[in-house]
Amino acid sequence: MDYDEFNGAPEDYFEPSAPDHYFLQSQEEIRELYEGNRESVYYIRQLQVKFEKKYYHWITNNAIIGLFKIGYLKDMRIPKEKGTSTRFFIHKANRYAKRTINSIEKIIEEYSQDHITRSCGHRAEDLFCNALAMRGFMPKAKKVKEYNDKKWEKTGHDLDFVFNRDGVDYGCEIKNTLGYIDKEELEIKLEMCAFFGIKPFFIMRYSPKTYNKLIYAQGGFVLIFETQIYELSQEILVKKIKDVLGLPVICSKAIPDGIIDRFEKWHTINV
Question: Other C-beta atoms within 10 Å of 137: how many?
Fold first, then answer.
């Protein structure tokens, strides 16, 4: 079972209740996408990201599974010797998808390697730490389980960083992933910030408004950067991910000023 593809939900996750407007609209757009090219092949995460500016990932997930359940879409997997095969969805009329699926699966396997995912996380942390430090937000601690003479022992979690500027401490989490942060993890990190008496500061590629509201309600800030960051050495892989999968990825040398501007402006107003 590929939990990442379903953002932590099991494969048959589907809300059986009466469909709402967004569910029906997302299904219609997915239909239009496949009707535009009946030979197209997509997997769940790919479609979630493609439509994320209009629909929450779980809405897209439900819409796809709904189309599969009524027979409009078929699902296919390529057996693998190790690990879980990705669940691909194709138009019901598509009979020759195997070659395309094989080529996409190879790219997914490449970007899913542990050393690649770890390097993405480290790259984003390094770039954001540098960008924030240039604006006076100085890192005071890393992998934080103890702060302000308090030790977090309720769970095994830690905060990525604590930054400080103008006497204000921020408990910071940096998530450079295509999927959302797990909601339980989000709530734990917010609880940790409250425990340490610091403001929550989440830097994420993307996040649903429902999650963001939880952060703002605790006096924190959400900084969205939209494009997943890779190491400069991964240019060939990034080109394949962009050209073949259409996912928002980049080999970045630095964080654009405009992204940090948003946080600095908010900080200045709220100090």
Answer: 24
